[in-house]
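User: Can you help me understand a structure? I only have the sequence.
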Amino acid sequence: MQKLAKEEEREEAERKAERRLKRQRMMAAQDPDTSEEAKDVDSDSDKGSERGSESAEEGNHVTRVVPADIPLHESLAPSKDSLELEKATRTVFLANVCTSAITDKSAKKTLLAHMGSFLSSLPEPLAGKPDHKVESIRFRSTAYAGTALPKKAAFAKKELMSATTKSTNAYVVYSTAFAAREAVKKLNGTMVLDRHLRVDGVAHPAKTDHRRCVFVGNLGFVDDESMLDQGGENERKRSKIPSDIEEGLWRQFGKAGAVESVRVVRDEKTRVGKGFAYVQFEDPNSVEAALLFNEKKYPPMLPRVLRVVRAKAVRKTANASAAARPDPRNARNGNKPRIYQPKTTSEMSSLQGRAGKLLGKAGAAQFKKKDAASGANGTVMGKKGDGKVVEGIARTPESIVFEGYRASSKNGRPKDLKMGGAKKGKGKPKSKSSTRASSWRKAGGKKTS
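Assistant: Let's start by predicting it. Here is the structure, written out as tokens:
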């Protein structure tokens, strides 16, 4: 029994040492400053294992040896969302990348070398942190020729649709978040493979400022229209010089000032342009110079006549205003219950305006409250002596004015509503007896009671 108790104590001590070693290694992975403490713990655990082995030799029992690399339990491992967020801080977005980087290996090496050209000027990373380097690059939003093959197969075969656009997008992953932040500052607007790069952060993208932005319309939908198969007699010839919308905007509007970003709005799948783009400058004063490009064309890259206007704020667009309007289908608007508001006529609006000028805001509010007691279309709701609620027409049809003329008793009322008493003369039915009586009265006869 004593031997069993000693074995249990020894096993419990080994389990505690293993758990303590796991915690220390996790802390060392998160914070490099604790690496020395982890080494001390490793030495203590080694001494403990030696003492355990000595006691095991005394008791003729073999003890377990603690492995050097202990796998981390899944409950202690970081979640997938936290890993994706950490990777997003190390990733930058590239726009206007030349498509030759996909089809040509040397062009891809040139792009990667350009993305890592500033890493040598960065300070050395802290102890325990990885070195600054470019880990990977992946291309997105690429126009592929044909829809029969999946995107991966088309990418492997390098079958691109160069007629749609000569640029694509990409994501570059760095080893550290600091290198990704510096890439946005130093590489945005630089040229590689004869094209201007737009570099933006993924976790913290640059904000759009309408005061530094212009809207460019009447752009071409595809870059090279001569390569498209029109079919039949209307087939275009290859003599037309192809355009380059995105790069043309970078070069032409760069004459007005330093360009921060060019965003050409395209279809998500086909990469066909929608005919407009946004150009944002670093200085708001450059917008004035860019407005001079309105109603002008700059071939061969921009062969169409441009429409250049100031960009509007997002809150002033139709979608933003529609989203801000309350939904009339909801029973409640915020914390206030929905109340029926009758449509006011022009006469009521005029009276309310006059009351506001003559009586002030308080008097106008009282007038409006008093006027709200009456329903729509001149309906008055009140009480009689018996206490019953009465609803009727407050004005006669003669007092109601329609489109340009005053109504009579014949108009503006239902047929089953009797007003003005019984009709005389024309309203009586005609028969043989009534005809004889009228002729007898005309001849001088007397009317009997």
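Now, to help you interpret it: Residues 33-39, 48-63, 375-398 have pLDDT under 50 and may be disordered. Residues 97 and 123 are 28 Å apart (CA to CA). Let me know which part you'd like to focus on.
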